[in-house]
Amino acid sequence: MNGIDLAVSTVIFALRPDADDRLVLSIPLVRRTREPFEGHWALPGGGADAAESLDATAARTLEETTGLTPAYLEQLYCFGEPDRSPSGRVVSIVYWALVRGDEAEQATIDENVAWFPADELPRLAFDHNLIVDYALWRLRNKLEYSRIAHAFLGETFTLTALRQVHEIVLQRPLDPANFRRQIEASRAVVPTGEHVTGGRHRPPRLYRYDATVDLVDRGPLTPAGIR
Amino acid sequence: MNGIDLAVSTVIFALRPDADDRLVLSIPLVRRTREPFEGHWALPGGGADAAESLDATAARTLEETTGLTPAYLEQLYCFGEPDRSPSGRVVSIVYWALVRGDEAEQATIDENVAWFPADELPRLAFDHNLIVDYALWRLRNKLEYSRIAHAFLGETFTLTALRQVHEIVLQRPLDPANFRRQIEASRAVVPTGEHVTGGRHRPPRLYRYDATVDLVDRGPLTPAGIR
DNA sequence: CCAAAAGTGTTAGTTGTACACCCATGT
DNA sequence: ACATGGGTGTACAACTAACACTTTTGG
């Protein structure tokens, strides 16, 4: 024992429709009900449990506070500046998670839990603004060299849906033709043979993840939250 | 307080000459003098200090146990499986560091501190073999998309020396001509105008880091150990 | 002069990007 | 028929990798 509290928090990302039905990269936050920072919004989390792995604590506290189950979960960074909490020394092990669109709809929403657009956050408790900035930076980087975008989508999806995930997260338009070829070349995805009907245009093919390809190369570490 | 001990450890890398005077990627380890794992080699480190940042604790414990000062220091990962220490729950925040060749020669060496080739380690205490494997993976990845190789070298250096750093760490030969052009194109380095004389061949140019270019892009996080 | 490493030039193959164009559907 | 997004083809630029070649030193 050395007078240091150990906490686990998670930055959760989902793509949710806004008032105009456009998808927005969003983060659920919880309102603090006690000091310090009472009334401020903060990342969901909780104290570390002596009997539980850190991954498990992240998944559990995430579920307890928001009702969500992540499709992807990875440790982000450990924040431990001595002055980051006015109430004493707290070291936070922070995770980041991706949840699917349909899953995000089932999140607990009450006066103490709410979704915010990732790039329009209020002043958060502690150093949580910095933490979210870092998580956003990692998400955007990792999207470009891994297949994690799939974790935002359901079992099957069109390439247009996958491209829109990239476009929304990276905040820039992508050429549909070139995107298609990149994804096909990466072998991350296999056509189901089915099509989506009902649109006002040519029915797009449905694809499925190639489960034999890992979402991310994490080297010697066994991925925590890959399905 | 929750019955969890918080420790900080560091994987330190340096390039040191072996018996045949060939440079080898090496790691200093300390021998444990008490249970658990008494007599086993382990990563240098120590308990977290309530008044000190994690970066500072890593730098301090690194200096206390090995006598080394790192040219580069970055947080690696936080390891916290419940069963990783037989003596109770320990969460380790692990850093990785690079030290320069001349600095490495000044390391404390006694019966309880010794250098090992990074790819020929004995069975280490706790999960430290996994940790070193992960640090190696990160080092090799990061070498390819950043300028951290410079942290192994002194103030000035030849491009051949820089290329040898890459070759040793990545364990494969690199084309000298293409390597030169890549480095020059990256603008990471500026010629000093001086040359190394005394070799049996054409005297190579000496280069210096371009201090206006960051070694690594760490996004919103301020780098810990960049000079 | 010769060996060896420093440094430059050239070319072929690969990858990225822009954009023209055809395809299949609902209205 | 036509608007709309799905999907294919193509051409050019940029980058990579392989390797021939020239330069400069010590012996």
TrEMBL record, chains A, B:
<dbReference type="Pfam" id="PF21906">
    <property type="entry name" value="WHD_NrtR"/>
</dbReference>
<dbReference type="InterPro" id="IPR000086">
    <property type="entry name" value="NUDIX_hydrolase_dom"/>
</dbReference>
<dbReference type="GO" id="GO:0016787">
    <property type="term" value="F:hydrolase activity"/>
</dbReference>
<dbReference type="InterPro" id="IPR036388">
    <property type="entry name" value="WH-like_DNA-bd_sf"/>
</dbReference>
<dbReference type="Pfam" id="PF00293">
    <property type="entry name" value="NUDIX"/>
</dbReference>
<dbReference type="InterPro" id="IPR054105">
    <property type="entry name" value="WHD_NrtR"/>
</dbReference>
<dbReference type="InterPro" id="IPR015797">
    <property type="entry name" value="NUDIX_hydrolase-like_dom_sf"/>
</dbReference>
<feature type="domain" description="Nudix hydrolase">
    <location>
        <begin position="3"/>
        <end position="140"/>
    </location>
</feature>
<keyword id="KW-0378">Hydrolase</keyword>
<dbReference type="InterPro" id="IPR036390">
    <property type="entry name" value="WH_DNA-bd_sf"/>
</dbReference>
<protein>
    <submittedName>
        <fullName>NUDIX hydrolase</fullName>
    </submittedName>
</protein>
